[in-house]
Amino acid sequence: MCRSIKTLFNFEPPATELEIRAAALQFVRKLSGFSVPSKANEAAFDQAVEAITASAADLMAALVTTAEPKSRDEEAAKARARSQIRFGTASSKPGG
């Protein structure tokens, strides 16, 4: 799967609409093979992003858990540690 799509459920603070849309955009890019669609495909591409954003937001709202919410800062620190082990240097990207 696309490495830039991150888990968004059960975090404190909760995922924003922009984060959900960014994940949908990455998903559509991965499926289509386009990072930027041609003019001929732009409407279909944009419609897919919007539909997946809406579906993902519905999913996030419907999910339930008894687990404590994860801390974004703690998860980012874990990702940086994994990156350092894997690549010998900490990632410069936010969140690992």
Protein model, in words:
The protein is mainly alpha-helical. The chain folds into two domains: 65 residues, no CATH class; 26 residues, no CATH class. 58% of the residues lie in helices and 4% in strands. The chain has three helices and two strands, in the order E-H-H-E-H. Helix 1 crosses helix 2.
Question: TL;DR of this structure?
Answer:
The protein has 96 residues and is mainly α. Helices cover 58% and strands 4% of the residues.
| Mean pLDDT over the full residue set | 89
| Gyration radius, in Å | 16 Å
The H/E string reads: EHHEH
Portion in strands: under 5%
Strand order, main sheet: write it out: 1-2
Largest sheet entry: 2 strands, parallel
**Total E-strand runs:** 2
Distance between the termini: 17 Å
* Overall outline: flat
User: Which percent range fits the helix content?
Assistant: 55-70%
**Domain count:** 2
Briefly note the structural class of the backbone.
mainly alpha
Tally of alpha and pi helices = 3
pLDDT < 50 runs, ≥5 residues: none
Layout: helices, strands, pairs:
Elements: E1 11-12, H1 17-32, H2 39-62, E2 70-71, H3 72-87
Parallel strand pairs: 1-2
